[in-house]
Design goal:
Radius of gyration: 17 Å
Number of domains: 1
CATH architecture: 3-Layer(aba) Sandwich
Oligomer: single chain
Number of strands: 9
Strand content: 15-25%
Helix content: 25-40%
Largest sheet: 5 strands, mixed, barrel
CATH superfamily: Nucleoside phosphorylase domain
């Protein structure tokens, strides 16, 4: 068995520092920094599949839809959906084993929904929660889950909440993300210059992001030996 870990952003992948080690002290794994979005995730998963991976982890941060989940909350999901499709579910043994290994972090075992575009406003989050009954939202997991299901592979989504359901993401935060998941600070500054009132929320978001990464680092420390 070989595990493929698909990550949207380079910052999310940095916590997987021991990439030459093994998952759960026995399983080899490979990491692919895909870039944000469904198409990038699809391409990365297909590449890992061709490299011999037969279990896939969608790894990274996410937005909160369940109002009870705060920034930094770990969400583990074995079922993923898009707003217009049925949920893709998995019951593999490795997914359960990984989940059990992370119980000390008090994860929320729930549902992930994937969208084509970032969900930033409180209204959008509320509507998506009502439609999907999902606890968190990302832009990659559904693509990974579909390929895993089609090829009889296992799947697990490991996500840490950045923006809670009660936090509206400032538009300037989205301006600096490039196609391979790197933050381009200059673009953020330019957008912020046009929307100075967003500075306070942008600072808050940065702290939430660091908190989410801290959770992912704790996950990596438990899983990778």
């Amino acid at each position: 068995m070989k595990v493929g870990i698909i990550v949207a952003m380079a910052s999310e992948a940095k916590v997987l520092k021991n990439q030459t080690s093994r998952l759960l002290d026995e399983i080899p794994f490979a990491v692919n920094i895909a870039g944000p979005g469904i198409e990038h995730a699809k391409k990365a998963t297909e590449q890992l599949l061709s490299d011999g991976c037969d279990f896939f982890i969608s790894w990274g941060v996410s937005g909160g839809l369940n109002t009870s989940l705060e920034s930094g909350t770990l969400v583990i999901s074995r079922e993923v959906a898009s707003p217009s499709e049925q949920t893709v579910q998995f019951t593999d043994d490795l997914g359960e084993k990984i989940s059990n290994q992370l119980m000390t972090l008090n994860p929320h075992l729930g549902r992930i929904v994937s969208t084509k575009k970032p969900v930033i406003s409180l209204t959008e989050k509320s509507k998506l929660r009502a439609v999907s009954q999902a606890d968190a939202v990302d832009m990659e997991s559904i693509a990974i889950a579909k390929i895993a299901k089609k090829n009889n592979c296992g799947f697990l989504s490991i996500r840490s909440i950045v923006d809670s359901a009660n936090f509206e993401i400032p538009s300037s935060a989205l301006a600096g993300m490039d196609s391979v998941g790197y933050l381009v600070i200059l673009k953020v500054i330019r957008r912020l210059a046009c929307r100075p009132k967003e500075l306070k929320d942008l600072i808050r978001l940065s702290f939430h992001f660091l908190k989410a990464l801290k959770t992912l680092r704790s996950v990596a420390n438990l899983l990778i030996k």
